[in-house]
Amino acid sequence: MKAFAIDAYKAPLKLRELPEPVARAGEVIVSIEAASVNPIDVKVASGAFKAILPYDMPLVLGHDLAGIVTAVGPGVSHAKVGDAVIACAGGDGIGTFAERIAIAETDIAKKPSNLDMTEAASLPLVALTAWQVLVERAQIKPGQRILIHAGSGGVGTVAIQLAKHLGAYVATTVSTSNVELARSLGADVIIDYLMESFDHIMTDYDVVLHTLDDKVLERSLRVLKPGGKLISISGPPDPAFAKAIGANWIVRQILKLTSAGIRRKARQQGIDYSFLFMRSDGGQLAEIARLAEAGIIRPVIDQVFAFEDAPAALDRSASGRARGKIVVRGHGSALRPEA
Question: Which pLDDT score is estimated for 334?
Fold first, then answer.
């Protein structure tokens, strides 16, 4: 099958002919109609996670997919051939920039019936991230105040909508050109970071979802009330994360050291700092699909690329200028009607 892979970290993304995937026990084969690009794909290709997530080469990139189940392995109990599904491939099983993939049945969910394949493929990783931050980690309650950084990005566009659904009072930071987008998604307070400093005008927030750099991370402490939660998906990883992934002693010490500064400052202010690394979860994805079908969460698409232009899609993500999600149509999918 055709797939886009790298032969080494920091090497160019190249089209390869690779063996067909085989469904092991509990897995299904999905013919990929569309895949979306996430910043983590750029980081994986750069080797940013090689110490904690070692991959074999050649490595097919890509986490998100929407497609059709074409085969099921032993022990699969619910999925069947012909199902239209969405999924986020995680761990060492990534590889959605390909024609087909073998993926655990527990990682897939039925595609929202009101979304086409391109729209559906844009949701899994960012929506799971938003769900795990807001529902699991923050346990957002109605009336709580949350600041969501980078509200026009992939995670931000979904997180604003989900937080509003949960009853939160939502603030977000965006550039001037994305103020109207943030407003259309339901944000109550919109900070144009080109014109204002969020930490100079915001106080007494319960939760901050951090997606940016270390400077913004530290400034975010200033807007939280004592007992507030600062949850970062861009780091630095903390000791709890190292324990969760079963990191060796050396990696645990490195992560403990790199996060020591922000953890100390947060503790001094009575704030809980934690790092979240999204995990695949088909059950949560099914809940997200239901919200999409109800019109509560709608995808925001930045740009759609043909399969052969996957390297350009990765470059677009690396630019940091995407407004919503970047999607790659599956090989040959342009010849088929959207399902």
Answer: 42
CA–CA separation, 211 and 82 (whole Å): 37
In the CATH hierarchy, which fold is given to the domain comprising 126-275? Rossmann fold (3.40.50)
Of 13, 46, 26, the C-alpha closest to 307 is 13
Determine the 3-state secondary structure of 182 from DSSP. Answer: helix
DSSP character at residue 335: G
pLDDT digits (tens, 9 = 90+) for 205-264: 999 999 999 999 999 999 999 999 999 999 899 999 988 888 889 889 999 999 999 999
Q: What CA–CA distances, in Å, run from 137 to 129, 222, 238, 273, 277?
A: 10, 20, 14, 11, 11
Q: What is the DSSP string of 103-167?
A: EEGGGEEEPPTTS-HHHHHTSHHHHHHHHIIIIIIS---TT-EEEESSTTSHHHHHHHHHHHHTT
Cβ 322 vs Cβ 113: under 8 Å: no
Q: Does domain 2-123+299-335 match CATH 3.90.180.10?
A: yes
pLDDT band of residue 332 (cuts 50, 70, 90) is low
The domain locations on the chain are: 2-123+299-335, 126-275
Model confidence pLDDT, tens digit, residues 24-38 = 999 999 999 999 999
My answer on whether omega of the bond before 58 falls inside 30° of 0, hence cis, is yes
DSSP per-residue string spanning 213-271: -HHHHHHHGGGEEEEEEEEESSS---HHHHHHTT--HHHHHHHHHHTHHHHHHHHHTT-
- Three-class secondary structure of residue 82 per DSSP: coil
Q: How far apart are CA 192 and CA 162, in angstroms?
A: 21
